[in-house]
Structures are given as structure tokens and as C-alpha cells.
Amino acid sequence: MGKEYFVAVSGQPNCGKSTMFNALTGATARVGNYPGITVDRTEGRYCTPEFCANLVDLPGTYSLTSYSMEEVVARDVIVDEKPDVVINMLDATSLERSLYLAVQFMEIGVPVVLGLNMMDEVRKKGIRIDTKKLSDLMGVPVIECIARRGVGKDELMESVQKVVEETKGEWNPVNISYGHDLDPVIEEMTSMIKENEFMTDRYDPHWLAVKYLEEDEIVMKNGRKAGPLAEQLEEKVQKVSEHIQKTLNTYPEAVLADYRYGFINSILKQGVISREDDLRFDFSDKIDLVLTHKFLGPVIMLLIMYGMFYITFNVGAVPQGWVENGFAWFSNTVGSLLPDGLLKSMVTSGVIDGVGAVMGFTPLILIMFAMLVFLEDLGYMARVSYMVDRVFRSFGLHGMSIMPFIMSGGLPGGCAVPGVMTCRTLRSPKERIATIITAPFMICGAKTTAYLMLVRAFYPDNATTVMFCLVLVSWLLALCFGRLLRWTALKGESTPFVMELPPYRIPTLHGVAIHTWDRVWEYVKKAGTVILAISILMWALMTFPQLPAERVAAFETQRVQVVEQSASWSGTAQEKEDKVEQELVKISYNEGEAALKHSYAGRLSEAISPVTDVAGFPWQANIAFIGAFAAKEVFVSTMSTAYSLGDEDPEEALSLSEKIAADKAWTTPVIWSVFIFLMVYVPCMVTVAVIARETNWKWATFSVFGSLAFGYTLSVIIYQVGNLLV
Predict the structure, then answer these.
(1) pLDDT grade, residue 652 (50/70/90)?
(2) Between residues 462 and 222, the one the model is more confident about
(3) Which of 50, 290, 324, 660 could potentially form a cystine with 360 if both were Cys, beta carbons 3.0 to 4.6 Å apart?
């Protein structure tokens, strides 16, 4: 059996790191989570007759300073799991920027192999890179690669084998000069760390001193737990920071970055890069003149977003119908096999219909995710973030917050679960939390079904305009609540927008398919299983306790009386039969309403009515909101049951809309009070659980009660002011 190596694959976002990882590992790749957090950990194997390598795909990161969860995870894998080699994939079209991460790996001391990706694009641009000279100057192997075609993968692993054999597990940190202001302090701090054996079991002393100068939060937090030396080191950092501020009007971290780039430039200027035509204008730059134009850019962005919205709902309508019809057939088939009673009701109404409501949206989610993944891989979503950054920054958020907003339903049909998970890309913890809390305000696919039902009932002639207005309102409320958070609980300066604009690249079908499937499966797995339990719970709450026998008997007596009295009615036999049917339907309606009000859900609705009456909510909406806390999809089915349409035809949305429209309790102030409350109040249970995993239970709890208070306040204002004006 050959030797076993542990190899980490790293790189900055959009460098082709994961593409190369997939090329290396193929079908052996498997996805899990890092312990205690939800950042994906993808692992796989690469084997030859001489050796086998266990590879881990590190999260994409720009540096090894703890600005984001991805950076912390990538660094912890290097420091704690000590891979034999790190394959650092670089975007060869932007070599200076890409080498910044490589230099930080070299400072830690881990053996490195550099993969220069996108060499085909480098040649198209008329750029030549002397990889041998770069390898000699950096002191590490450098391999030319084209990840999407698998070019260079075997050469990378051959270099890995050579590096492992040469280093024999020893790490040799590279110490860069950081100038006369910082070098003496770094040496002094390094000596103190060595003498006191301060966290030297985990970190290289020189690297640890540099991290202290960068004021790395995680390192400093660990240091305070490790011993009293932490206080002395922090005092030295404070003194040198004050000195740097006075003399250079900057801060140590900026100086460290400047010297790292200086180190990189000193290498690149030694004939590593040459151009056939220095005046050549990059193709991506030409496109950006239009797509990021001050006026044209936002217009094109809105048209693209509208196009995605149109395609999602129009193209997705056909497969969505197939899924819904499939569940309807399954429900009818199972229902025909089971005897009438509670078991049949639970299985068909509670289990199959509940899960089917969620799965019916899977085609829409798949289409939307596929388009978003395509735009991300193409490089366009980075431009969108760039364009909206100024607007978002004025509300205390970041340009990259737009992706979580879009994923959560900024284009109706999204889902807050992947939207919240997308917030991992935000570097600032406060901006990340503010985005996580506000992203569920967007109109997700579940809310869309409820709005379609309500809008169709109250605004049948202007449905498109009203839906478009609701989308705009959801964005506005999310931004406003984000601003409130950044003024109060999450005070702090906005993070500068430093995201690079990657060159445009046509995504591969394989890459889009893999990334889309990962997101769709996450949606199905997380949402579908939870909806099953919620649907059964809601069915039980709306079914038990059942009406007492004497009340059921009273309704049966009414039915008998109607049939008996019909003999004395005037009119033809057909007219009498129609009138009997109408009276029996009314009795069934009254019985259903009585049973619902008698149930636990009905009693809870009645208990909270003194509070909800101030916002104008009808009692049916009270019950629907209770169910929709678990999952917004439940709103429509609960309203259907609340209006006792189950015995008629619950699948006819128009019948439900007509019944709601005929209810005089729904005045204009009530309608918009319900609209806004449904938009803002309480993320669904799945989203709350994900928020807890991405932050903690304190913020997950706040997402429930904070949004509930915000939504209730808005609804009360709308209802009370609306009544004064109407």
C-alpha cells in the first residue's frame, strides 16, 4: 500500500479552487460540516500506485486574518490539523492579488504548492508568466493549470509528493521584513513568546507576534485564556499602533499588508510577468463600462432580475404542476385505501398535502438557483454587489448583502434558509448579523403563495402591480430595520467594499449543475423534513379537541330538520333540492367553523385576539399566522381550513380567494395590515434554527421577537391610521 498524505486545497474566491478540487477527487468527494459550525467541509481522495492523498477543500478566503468564518476555518485547519502540503490555487490573471494568500501560508511555514489557474485566459490577454522563475524566487513549486479542463492536476500531485519527501514534515516559516517601525517590535514580541512558551504548541512565535500586530480577534481571545503574557503583548501592540498613527497616519495591519505586497512586487518585477501589448484593454473592462455604468448598470440589473423572476415562474410552472399533480394523485390514492377517520385525515391532509406544498416549489427553487449560480460563476453578481454597495452602506449594510437578500426572496420564490447561509461571505460580524436578521423579510416562495391568494382576492385587476409593490416594500423594510440595528444593537462603521471584480468567464454546465444541486438538496432536506412534522402538528392543533357529542348531534338535528321542512317549501323539485343543498352547506360551514374555534388552535386565536384586534387581524388570520410561524406555506392551507372550504374543494385557490373577498371583515386597512405583518413577522422555524447555527441562540431569539415587535408595530400603525383616513 502506498503512502498516505493529507493535503489542503486553498485559494481566494473565484480562483477555480473548488473546480480543481473536483477534478482531483472526482466521485470520491463528500460534503460535511466542520464541527460546531455550518461551513461546508468537502473531502476527497486522489490515489496513484505510489501514494494516496486525502484532500480537504478549504473555504475560499482572501487572507488568514479572522475577519470571517471562512478565514478562521481555513487557518484552523492549517494550524490544528497540520496538512503535509497546501495546494494554493491562484488566479493567474490577477497574480499580485492572488499571491497575498500564498505569502501568508509561507509565513505560517506550511509546505506550499502553487497552482496558476486560468493560464488559457492569461495567454489570451497576451500575458506571459515565467513559472520557473516565479518558483525559484518564491522557493515553492509552481504549476500551470486550467482547472475547468483538469489541466495540471496530475502535475500538482506530483509536486505534492516531491515536497512531502523533501520537507519530511518540517515546517519552515518565511519571515518578511515589515520595516524599521515594526520589525524591532516583532522581534521583541517573538522573544517574549518563546521565553514564556506562550501558545507555541499551536503557533509559530514569529507568526503569532505578527497576528497580534494585526489585532487578530481569535488569536488575542485565545491569548487571554493562555496566560498573563497576553496583556503585555497587547500593551506593546497599543504603543506601536499609537506610534504608527502619529508618524504614518495609518495602523499596523495596513503597514503589514503594504510590506507583503511589496514583497510580492519585488518578485514579480524580476521578469516574472511580461506583456505582448501593455496597451491592450481587457475584455472584462469593456463589458464593465456598460454593466457597471452609473445609470445603465442599475437599469440592466433590474431587467436581469425581472427576467429571472419571469423565467422562474413561467418556465417553472410546468414542472411545478407535475410535482403538485403527483402529490395530489398520491394523496387521492392513499385516501382511497384508508378508511374514513382521523388516520386518513392525518395522512392525507397532515402528511402528504403538507410536504407536497413545499416540494411543489422545488422546480422553482431549482430554476432560480441555477440562474443565480450561473450569474455568480459568470462574475456578474460581483458587479451587482459593487453597484448596490453605496445604497446598502447608507443603511449600515454591505454590497455583498444583496446576495442573501436575493436568495431569501428579493426575487419572489427564494428561501431564507440558503439566504441566511449565504451571509457567511460577509467579513464584518456586525454586518453579517444585521443581514441575517433582515434577509427573512424578503418574499420567499412560501410567502409568495400566500400573497398570490390574498392579492387575487382583493386586487384581481391589479395583481401584477400590487405584487411588484410588495416586493419593493420588502426591500425597503429590510433596509430600514437593518439601519435600526446598526444604530442600536450592532453599532459600528460600515466595512469598506474591497471585493474584487473577477473577469467574466462562461461557467461550465458541470459546475453549475453541481452547485445548483447542492443548494436544492439543502432546501429539500432542511425544509421538507421539518414541514412533515409541522403539518402533522398543525393538523392536530386544528382537529383536537373535537366538538362534544351533543354539539355534533345538534348540527345533525339541523340537517334532519332542513330535509323534513323541505317538503313544505314552494317551488319545483329541482329548486327544492338546490335549496336543501345550500342549507346543508351552510350547516357544514357553521359546524366546521365551530369545530375549528373549539380546537386548540381556535382557542389560542381567541386568547390572542385582544392583542391582534388592535392591528385588525380577522380570527382566521390569527390561526393562519400561528401555523405560518412554523412554515409560511402553512398560511394558505390554514386559511382554507379556517374558512371551512375543505369539504368543497380546497385545491381551488380562486374559491378560497372569493370566500375571503366576500368576508366584510377585510377592509383596506386590514388587508395592508396583514400584508405587512406577513412580510416581516417571525422567520419560519427552519430559518430560526439556521440563524442559531450561523450566529447563536441569542440572535435567533432576537430574530423572532425583534421582527415580531417590528411587524406588529407597523401593522397597528397601518390599521389605526387607515381607519382614520377611510
Answers:
(1) very low
(2) 222
(3) 324
Residue 608 has pLDDT above 60, yes or no: yes
Closest Cα to residue 405, out of 352, 444, 374? 444
Query: Which stretches of 409-461 are DSSP H helices?
Result: 416-422, 429-438, 445-458
pLDDT value of position 307 = 79
DSSP strand pairing (3-11 vs 30-33): unpaired
Q: Which three cell numbers stand for residue 426?
A: 460577509
- Please tell me the predicted confidence (pLDDT) of residue 9: 94
Measure the CA dihedral 516/518/519/524, to 10°: 120
Residue whose cell numbers read 518578511 = 176
Nearest CA to 288 among 299, 280, 296?
Answer: 296
Q: Is the dihedral of CA 351, 356, 358, 359 positive or negative?
A: positive
Please enumerate in sequence order all residues whose Cβ is within 8 A of that of 110, keeping only pairs 6 or more positions apart, or say none: 78, 82, 83, 85, 86, 171
Distance in angstroms (rounded) separating the CA atoms of residues 216 and 117 = 30
**Buried b or exposed e, range 671-682, using 16+ CB within 10 angstroms:** bbbbbbbbbbbb
Taking the C-alpha atoms of residue 222 and residue 237, their distance in angstroms, rounded to an integer, is 16
Among 685, 317, 652, which Cα is nearest to 537's? Answer: 685
Q: Considering only CA atoms, which of 618, 626, 627, 656 is closest in space to residue 640?
A: 656
User: In this structure, how many other beta carbons lie within 10 angstroms of the beta carbon of residue 201?
Assistant: 7
Whether residue 670 is predicted with pLDDT greater than 90 in this model: the reply is: yes
Can you name the residues that pair with 54 across neighbouring β-strands? Answer: 6, 45
Distance of alpha carbon 157 from alpha carbon 258, whole angstroms: 33
pLDDT of residue 495: 67
Q: DSSP letters of 313-373? A: HHHTHHHHHHHHHHHHHHHHHHHHHSPSSHHHHIIIIIIIHHHHHHHTTHHHHHHHHHHHH
Of 671, 676, 675, 663, whose CA–CA distance to 714 is shortest? 676
Residue 190 and residue 699: Cα distance in Å, rounded? 38
Least confident of 165-174, 525-534, 638-647: 638-647
Element (H, E) at 550: helix 549-565
Report the share of the chain in percent with pLDDT over 90: 26
Contact 31, 42 (CB under 8 A): yes
The pLDDT of residue 83: 93
* Inter-CA distances, 337 with 128, 327, 403, 584, 647, Å: 72, 15, 46, 28, 19
Question: Which cell is 490 given?
Answer: 450592532
Per-residue pLDDT tens for 559-586?
A: 899 888 888 888 888 888 888 888 887 7
- Rounded Cα distance, 321 and 331, in Å: 15
For residue 531, what pLDDT is reported?
65
Which of 236, 266, 265, 241 has its CA nearest to residue 253? 241
* CB contact at 8 A, 423 and 439: yes
Q: 444 pairs with which residues across the strands?
A: 414
- Residue ranges with strand state E in 209-300: 273-275
What is the mean predicted confidence (pLDDT) over 271-286?
64
Q: Please determine, for residue 642, whether its predicted confidence score (pLDDT) is greater than 50.
A: yes
Higher pLDDT, 138 or 331: 138
Cα–Cα distances (Å) from 649 to 273, 349, 652, in that order, read 71, 13, 6
pLDDT of residue 350: 67
- Residue 209 and residue 193 in contact, taking contact as beta carbons nearer than 8 Å: yes
